[in-house]
Amino acid sequence: MALQSEGIVLRVYSDFVEVRTEDGVRWRCKLLGKLKRRRRRTTLIAAGDRVRIRVVDAEKHEGLIVAIAPRQRALSRRRPGTLTPVEDVILANPDEIMVVFAAAEPEPNLFLLDRFLVAAEASEIPAFIVINKIDLTGEDRARAIFGFYEPIGYPLYYVSAKEGTGIDTLRRHLKNHITVVAGPSGAGKSSLINRIQPGLNLRVGELMRVGKGKHTTRWAQLYPLDQGGFIADTPGLRELGLWDVRPQELSDYFPEIRALSPQCRFSDCTHINEPGCAVRAAWERGEIHPHRWASYQQLFQEAVQVQEQGFWNQDADGSG
Ligand SMILES: Nc1nc2c(ncn2[C@@H]2O[C@H](COP(=O)(O)OP(=O)(O)OP(=O)(O)O)[C@@H](O)[C@H]2O)c(=O)[nH]1
Ligand SMILES: [Mg+2]
Ligand SMILES: [Zn+2]
What we know:
By secondary structure, this protein is of the alpha/beta class. It has 10 helices and 13 strands.
């Protein structure tokens, strides 16, 4: 092969980066020192990043990453425990997010589901929802719980990783995309991926750690799909931090609220207590689902708190 080649990062582990070039070959790469000095308030390199590598040893498949392409988008979380916000990139350049929830075991937490959807909207990554474990409830009961997300615009799939129900339909949706799988721990993300791409043997029923120490942290890893495309498992993020969502923009991340807000009297209406609010009027007419409305209010308060903390922390860091 040529001395330089383009590829995609499959995973980052300790000091190495695994890169897959377009011919399907995997390379164990180091990062050119110069690239490490690029200081950004974000992750230097993550799964999904497109890179250029220089071949160091063609037989051992060893390379050096000499360039990282600018990210088109990223799925991120706020790094916990830092004064100024730092972006932890879970996956670079995903085409879409597959949010997996269980119909039962664990009991569905719809506030958490909205949190994942808002994070997807804020990252401008299209989301769809997969309800797993319908073998436990039946499809009808699952539809009764989650069905109202469909008219909002989120495609819904009802599946069972255990029994194989709905997997073929889901596979067709995934073809040729880079899909990141997100959802609470125990929803069956790893089980589903194993069903979709037999032979991967991802560990099931074992908590993936989102540890503090460098070496216990497990970020996303991309798996190539036989049919074309990639899928990435992520640790079950119980608390997906809202990255950089300001209260004033939260309504942009609820599609059914976003659609109505141009009709509000004030263009910067937050729909909390302003007069002439078209969103609250629609809610009073029963046109916005009560759960989504409660979720919006809760996330709004949270975003206000984050903004206030950020304001007070500006000085402490000295970089404000
Ligand atoms: N009944 C039933 N159980 C399932 C199904 N899919 C997964 N499970 C079980 O649910 C448990 C959790 O599955 P995992 O695939 O490990 O869940 P996960 O979402 O990857 O969890 P984390 O890696 O911790 O985020 C395991 O005991 C699975 O056997 C399903 O379709 N039906
Ligand atoms: Mg898992
Ligand atoms: Zn309004």
